[in-house]
Amino acid sequence: MSRMIDYGKLMHAAMRRLIQNVLTDVQQHGLPGAHHFFITFDTTHPDAELADWLRDRYPSEMTVVVQHWYDNLEVTDEGFGITLNFGDAPENLYIPYDAIQTFVDPSVEFGLRFEQQGDDEDEDLLDDDLPVAAHEPDEEVEDDAEEPARPEAEVVSLDSFRK
Fold it and tell me: How far apart, in whole angstroms, are the C-alpha atoms of residue 27 and residue 144?
């Protein structure tokens, strides 16, 4: 099979770069106005760093809020470190960008959601993995023929991220 452009992987890289740019701005200038972030990440990621008691409490994923109090925000090309307060106990975290599952700024109704990648991220997409609308028809389609069914878009309410 011939090589294909993996648009999903390219889009995820661009979205992670956007998160890096936003966090770099916050590191340099602080959070502007009412902006704040809900960041859900995979606590099992091999490069994620968090206290053992947090990993025990959140064995698969955890959502952190960057809003009123945070310290030591250090942004790198691979992820970011931050100190957050958990019940009057400051804890250092390191979150790699590729561990992030969702990044939401509810103050402006902005959110990113990362789909889980397969175990072999370098594997080329198979034709069967493409959405129906992306397939080329085998034969000429007449104007009055029905279009192939398109998958329904998933709508995620930002209310699910609010407390």
Answer: 56
